[in-house]
Amino acid sequence: MHIHKNDRVKLLGGVDASKEPSRVVKINLSEGTAIVQGRNMAWKHLKRSQDYPHGARVQKEQPIPLAKLMVICPNCSKATRVKMTVQENAKMRICAKCKKPLGEDK
Ligand SMILES: [Zn+2]
Questions:
Q1: Cβ(44)–Cβ(58) under 8 Å?
Q2: Domain boundaries, the chain
Q3: pTM (2 decimals)?
Q4: C-alpha 9 to ligand 1 mean position (Å)
Q5: Distance, CA 99 to ligand 1 centroid (Å)?
Q6: Using the 8-state DSSP alphabet, how is residue 17 labeled?
Q7: pLDDT in tens, 83-99
């Protein structure tokens, strides 16, 4: 996978495209989506419950398709494509711009 949990990513579309890059909190491989901290927020209306005796409106991150995310390289701090390479029997992710490793592929 070219995007990992805890990567900093930029959104390529949607209302948050112009915002600063944010961190990937969760990846859902089967759906091909990711949750990005503080991005693509939507209001959820909760019914009355023990925790919220009057009901509540809470903001929650909605999944974003992985294709709409671009990894920010920690070395050159640019939004980049990710290339895969094999080094010492481990699949490595490398930045397509500065060619520095982005960490092992999981
Ligand atoms: Zn780079």
A1: yes
A2: 1-69, 73-106
A3: 0.83
A4: 13
A5: 6
A6: T
A7: 988 878 888 899 999 99
